[in-house]
Structure formats: structure tokens, C-alpha cells
Design goal:
Shape: rod-shaped
Number of strands: 0
Distance between the termini: 122 Å
Number of helices: 5
Order of helices and strands: HHHHH
Largest sheet: none
Structural class: mainly alpha
Helix content: 55-70%
Radius of gyration: 44 Å
Length: 172
């Protein structure tokens, strides 16, 4: 009887081992399909990783472009503000001119003629480096010329509408 129980236990132990081996085979097959780079989750992970790298590069390029655009826009805005100030000054000087050309006008300030390029500045960009100084001198001359013109103190019209008001235009 002891031998029969031992044979039955050996058969059950062998069957359990065969069942565990079959179960491991099925799991191995599923794991291979799961990690397959073409159709499985492994392929999806690899694809998403490549897309994240591409998006990171694109984002870096967009940040650089935005920074460059911001710098350019700032420089252009400053340049436009400077031009606006000069135009306001010129308009103020123009509005203070007499209506009749026969009236005496303060002599215009002459600016020196531009010098031909010398060998000291062969590069045209180098010659432009002194232009802001010339422009500042010209602006100062315009301010001086505008302040020398006779002005009717009784007429305190707005700066840009003074000539229009004298002509009879409507000021708002």
C-alpha cells in the first residue's frame, strides 16, 4: 500500500511539473508578443520615445525663434519710437512756421554736407557709427530754430493742431 501511494504521489508530482512547464511556455509566448517592437507595447513605447525627442527638438527651435523675434521686435520698436520723436519735433517746427512765406523766418541752420568716404572708414557700416551724433546735432538745431520763431502766446493750440486751427480746420 505504501508503494501505491508513492507511485500516485510521483504521478501527481510529474503532472504538476508538466502543468507548470506548459503554463511557463504560454507566459513566455505572451511576453514575446507584448515586447514585440513592431506590433506590441514595446513598439508603442519606442515610437512615443522617438516622438518625444522630436517634440523636444522642435520646442527648443521654437523657443530660439521666439527669443530672436522678441529681440528683433524690441529693436524695431525702439527705432520706431526714436523716429516718432524726431517726426514730432519736425512737425512742431513745421507748425510754428508762418503762414505767409513773405514773413521773415529765422535763418535755417545748415548742417555740414556729408563727407565723401575716406580711407579711414572704408566700411560703410563704420561711417554710420557717427550718424547718431549728427542726428542729435540736427535735432538740437531744429529745436533751436523752432524756439527762435515768433510765437503768439495768446494762441495755446495743441502742438499738432496749431496749423490746422489757424487755417480753420476742426480740432477735436
Amino acid at each position: 500500500m505504501d508503494q501505491i501511494v508513492m507511485v500516485i504521489s510521483d504521478i501527481l508530482l510529474g503532472a504538476g511539473a508538466i502543468g507548470a512547464a506548459a503554463y511557463c511556455g504560454v507566459l513566455a509566448h505572451r511576453l514575446k508578443r507584448f515586447n514585440n517592437l513592431e506590433n506590441g507595447v514595446g513598439g508603442a513605447v519606442a515610437l512615443l520615445s522617438a516622438q518625444v525627442d522630436d517634440m523636444t527638438r522642435t520646442l527648443d527651435l521654437a523657443r530660439k525663434a521666439a527669443g530672436h523675434s522678441s529681440e528683433t521686435l524690441t529693436a524695431l520698436t525702439e527705432r520706431a519710437e526714436a523716429a516718432s520723436r524726431k517726426l514730432e519735433l519736425m512737425l512742431a517746427a513745421l507748425n510754428d512756421l508762418p503762414e505767409n512765406p513773405s514773413e521773415t523766418v529765422a535763418p535755417a541752420v545748415k548742417t555740414p554736407a556729408p563727407k565723401p568716404p575716406s580711407k579711414a572708414h572704408p566700411d560703410p557700416g563704420a561711417a554710420r557709427a557717427s550718424d547718431p551724433d549728427k542726428e542729435a546735432a540736427q535735432d538740437a538745431a531744429w529745436v533751436a530754430a523752432a524756439s527762435d520763431l515768433p510765437r503768439d502766446d495768446a494762441e495755446q493750440a495743441p502742438l499738432f493742431l496749431s496749423r490746422r486751427n489757424r487755417v480753420g480746420g476742426v480740432a477735436q
